[in-house]
Design brief:
With about 170 residues, this protein is mainly β. Helices cover about 0% and strands about 45% of the residues. The strands form four sheets. A four-stranded antiparallel sheet has the order 4-5-6-7, with no helix packed on it. The chain is globular, with a radius of gyration of 17 Å.
Length: about 170
């Protein structure tokens, strides 16, 4: 059977789908705050690591399944991770992990660091940085949603953004 990780108000819980047993995910003492802050989202990367964001400023934690260790990538080690709260995540074709919140940033898997920060979309009409990742498509486009701007397509390969205007999408029924 599979084991699921579930984010709860009192931390992370594991759940075995075969026998329905469960328990707390044990975290190291330096990350004890994980048990006190709600997880917002999780994603598994190409190397089976689990990335988790919490309701903590500029905070993302990575769990390496091979070593069974947690790493907090926040703070001075990754000064470009300044998106306030990470509301959503996606992985691109190169295996990098993208975080969205008050801006968009990328964990570069080859460099093992956050190496990109896009504070607001260059295609946006209103400079409001909050974005949510809707999905990553097979052409390496991140599809984003911005409350004040609508749908934004970010071509990761060519570093280009396109605002998909309301008159050309599903909002008006055309």
């Amino acid at each position: 059977g599979d084991t699921l990780w579930i984010g709860t108000r009192t931390g992370l819980v594991w759940f075995n789908t075969s026998d329905y047993s469960f328990g707390r995910v044990v975290v190291p003492p330096e990350l004890a705050w994980i048990d006190e802050i709600n997880p917002i989202c999780m994603i598994e990367d190409a190397k089976n690591n689990i990335w988790i964001s919490f309701g903590n400023l500029n905070s993302v934690v990575c769990y390496n399944r091979a070593t069974r260790r947690f790493t907090d990538i926040s703070g001075s080690k990754n000064p470009l991770l300044t998106i306030t709260y990470c509301f959503s995540m996606a992985k691109d074709r190169q295996g990098n992990v993208w975080f969205a919140g008050d801006g968009l940033c990328r964990w570069n898997v080859a460099r093992q660091m956050v190496d990109t920060l896009i504070e607001y979309s260059s295609a946006a009409q209103t400079l409001n940085g909050y974005v949510v990742i809707l999905d990553m498509d097979n052409d390496n486009n991140l599809w984003l949603y911005s409350w004040n701007n609508g749908i934004i397509q970010y071509d990761v390969t060519h570093n280009k953004m396109y605002l998909r205007k309301k008159e050309n999408n599903f909002w008006d029924g055309d």
